[in-house]
Every structure is written in C-alpha cells, then in structure tokens.
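tmp note - Paraquat-inducible protein A
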Amino acid sequence: MNRPPLASELNLCLCHSCGLACDITDNPHECPRCGAPLHARKTNSLTRTWAYLLTSLVFYIPANLLPVMNTSLFGSGSDSTIMSGVLEFWQHGAWDIALIIFIASIAVPGIKFVAISLLLITVQRGSLWARKERSKLYRFVELIGYWSMLDVIVVALVAALVKFQALGDIQPRLGILFFGLVVVFTMLSAMSFDPRLIWDNQREKPPNEEVMDEVASH
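out:
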C-alpha cells in the first residue's frame, strides 16, 4: 500500500523548542537553529503524564472544598468555595459570571481528567479504537487548556469591581492556590503526552490482507 514516508525513515526530528525539522543524520543531539536538545519522542511520556494527572487530581479535592475568596460587604464577611460562589452569583442574577466560573472551574477540569485518562489507558492497552478521533480529542484538550485560568481571572475582576465601587472587600483564600496548581498540572500532563503514541501500535491490515486471512481460515 502506497503511503508517504515517515519522518523517522527520512532521519528527520522536530525540535520541541523552535519547531524546526532537523536532519539527525549528521548532528543527532541538538537543533542547528536554537541549540536545544533533540528528542525523537517525548521522554517517559506516559509516566510523566500519569504523574502530572494524578497530582492535579489530588489538588482538585482541596480546590473545591476550601474557600477561594472571602467577601466582605457592609461589615459582614463570608468565605466562598467554587460551587458556593457559583450559586451565589446565580441567585443574585449574575448568571453569566456563574456560568463562566462553573465551566472554567468544574466542567473544563473534569473534561480534561476524563479525556487524558482515556488517552493514557487506550495507548497503554494498544487499542486501535478510534485513533483519528482520539488525536482530535488530544487537540481539543490542548485548546481548552488555554482557558483554564479563566476562573482565577473572573475572581480578580470581581474583586476589582467590588473595590472600585467601594461596596466592600474581597480577599483570596487558600482554595484559589490549589485551583491554580490544578490548572498548572493538567496543562503539564497534556504537554507531556505524546499523541504519536496513538499511532504506534500495530496498524490495521489492508483490506486485501484481511480478505486473504478470511479465505485462509475457511
């Protein structure tokens, strides 16, 4: 079956720093443009991805249980967790802010946990299931990773708005630190995963070979 040559067959390696396609025949150790070390694949990709993902899951628990901010209005203050903050904004009619915080703080991390776990498990099992769709899933995880800090930004904007209108005061709490760590480690887990591992397992047989196998079995 005709196919274009693979980069490994042409002795080409993509620099992870500047993106240059480097010929590793003569200088296999460093990029000729930026001098960064060259790696044909991300080293220990599965191990590092699992480690970052499990670390983010550990931090996700206190990020949701501990208060992320303390709101003081007219002398009375109260601590708010992520979910209580969402409910509070919703009850006061700020459904748009509540929706943004819910998506950024609850939905996006949950989607990333499930998606990266699915990619890791299927790769480790050598699954041939939906490889093209899994590659698209990885690109989707990378895309939503850029919006992971949206919740922290919203908290900062609300705090600035309250102080600007002299209605009260908002102070960050320990939960926002754990949530920031969740964001960092989920981004590291996505960056550590090598999507080429999806295509490294045994390729499906061409249709003519499948037909020959069926004939031989009968």
